[in-house]
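A common beginner's mistake is to predict each chain separately and then try to dock the pieces by hand. The better habit, illustrated here, is to supply every component at once so that their relative placement is modeled jointly.
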Amino acid sequence: MNEALRTERRFRPAEAKLTAKSSRWRNQLSLQSMVWPGLAFLLVFSYVPMYGVLIAFKEYDLFEGVIGSPWVGFVHFREFFNDPNFLNVLRNTLAINLLGLVLGFPAPILFALFLNEISSKRFKSFVQTVSYLPHFVSWVIFGGLMLTVLSPSNGALNGLLLQLHLIDEPINFMAKTNLFWFIMVGMEMLKGIGWGAIIYIAAIAGVDQEMYEAAKIDGANRFQKIRYVTMPAIMGTVVIMLIFAISSILNTGFEQVMVMQNALNLDVSETIDTYVYKVGLSEMRYSYSTAVGLAKSVVALVLLFGANYVSRKISDSSLF
Amino acid sequence: MLGKRISGLVLVLSLFGSLLAACSSNNNKENAPSSAAASQSASESAPDASASASPEDKSPITVDWFVSLDYYKKNWDAVNNLLDKMITDNTGITINFTSGNDDKLSALIAAGDLPDIVTLDKGAPQRGVLEKSGLVAPLDELIKQYAPDYQVPQSIQDWFRNADGHFYGYPSFFWAKENMKDGDRIRSNQGLYARKDIMDQLGIKPEDFATKEGLVAALKKVKDAKLKYNGFDVTPAYYESWNIENFFGAPREDEQGNLVDREYTPQALEAYKFMNRLYREGLIPQDSQTLTKDQVQEKVNNGAVFSTTNKNIDWSPLFHTDPNALFVHVGPVAGDSGNKPYVDPVNASGWTLTMINSKAEHQDRIIKLFQYLSSEEMSLNVNYGPKGEAWDFDENGKVKQSEAFLKLNAEDSNQAKLKYGNDTLGWFINWIPIQRTQPATVEQDQVAKLENGLFFGNYTYNMLPFENITPLGGTEEAGIKAKIEENRIKWRAKMILAKSEEAVAKAYNDGIEQEKKLGFDKLYAYQNQKYQEAKKALGLEHAGPALK
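With all components supplied together, the output reads:
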């Protein structure tokens, strides 16, 4: 202890000469010490492994390593973009995601708004718990359940429709190519609506209650309060979530699609992720898979910046 | 201020300190047993290294064994499990099994963390990687060094030998011609089967299935009878198109001895047209294209299926609820070309390969374990459980399972597996001695299955050269093959479920065109070259089923 004290004192005269910046650094030492391990973690586990994207431009050999494998340029990119199936998998990926953006993105927002209007606290937390429970079920199980529900031979949905005399014979839902995208988006909503609503519920909880009181005095009804108080207050959150959603437009839930695929719907169900898994990863073609992953990331980055820029211009709220 | 700063420092230091402590204590834990094991092995291997490696060395060791099949689970239990006890007693080896899929194996390879023994599908892309990298030891050299009396059939050695002159893995279910005696026939998992009770009820005979018209008429009878079994509608048939192609005699080689892709033959188109006809007449359902094998199995269990082509679908559960519900062999249906029907045998070149890590500590002991496990009697032991406890030979030289085993197995087959270890360690199994000594049985379903197997055994051929044409993992050809396979799934469904025969022909041509775009010619050139090499290695001029 004495040692430490003396050390402190010895450096004290020098401190006076230090710039304001570095003295601020020293004052924040306890805080800084919490930031640096996180930063180091990020560097070691997220940035350093990025050198691996080099293999997208090489013919990767497990034993030559990333550095030793021979360069091949854009061969793998060319293979993917010239693939006769490329347009098909791109279309399916975009269709599922755009549909998800139009139908699936607003759903948790509406859900959070409605949930906020429930006055019984117990009922509210009950609904919330029930709605985000499916999030914790894996896609394999959830998909299996859906396949059973939609089954033409003994599925509950066909049974119901038959009972109601809405249809005369069972529909093989998973073989209907025009329904597949909607089924995907519907499943995603069913599984993710409660979980997705959490962030909006948190945003709503942060709204100043006095604004509601003011609105009430001004004679606003429920819907007007939602429209003129809640919505503007959570708009920042909505925009940020939208930017994220747009930037991940080339990603589809891999497991979800994989589970629901079959020979009859492959034309509309093959997405970039599942296709590259089948013809790349499972055949140990790591370079090819990395090339496609890299191409996807570049597109995602462009979309992220683009969406961010547009949002900053239009709504004044943005990620950075 | 100062106090705050110091407490901050203390906090950081203690944080780092605890991190370091965690590391070092981990290291200690890991180091302790491994260094002990190392010194132990050093003392053991010293005498073993000499030429007089004693097979009697039964000092206890533990080896790690990775099986690249994620459903495989086995906990070594040399106390309660009679098979494990027998192996540990005889070799001194305790096996620590782990398992996972091929992706996990890739991760183990990349991490340089390969266990002592690895079992993988012989067609897995990881195989080439393991063999070429020196990660696994050449078996021939280990045998020469440590187990000179270990006789591996020449055909196994030749078949798995690489360009470098070594072979690296021991196969399971390999049909080595050295092991075959008169009357041994390679079996098939394909065939044509139908429910006997329904045939009797509707007056259908097995011969009816020998022609296309007869088959359609037979299935129509089933459909028109609107049969209900246990409340389920009986579906006339679940067939696979490639089985029908084989029945129609699609050639696998042309007159010059070049490889032929069966999908490119007139018989293939004929088969798709036939399947489409069955579909349009309501004899095979739409879900035949989407159901997994397990789902079809469930329908068979419910008695809701009249006829199938897949022998692997087990109908014993159905038989146990209804002793009349037997599946018997029928047909097989022949096509218009006049070619003789055939079925593909199970892979003669086996299923899995088991390899030894070139850095494994106890290579001498492991190669002797291989020798021990690959004897004919051990094939019987791993299939039925240890001899003497689970079975013994009867006076005809056939296997007779013990009363105790049969009783426990009937009560709870999982308990039987835990106690006898039957069917839990098949990585060295040689099916020929098992087929030869199959228990004489009075159970009707078993008799029928035996009979079905023998019947379609007559339709098999030597498929060995065709088992060589799978491209190596990581290559461009492997990518093309995956794309084409993927395309064929769609393509088949489209043809079989087409609205008219003209639509089948159109879809067929579209599919061929698409395959050309995906790079079929390049894949074919590779496959044909591999096929020629295999024929040369086997000393054959022509191969494939006899069609005339």
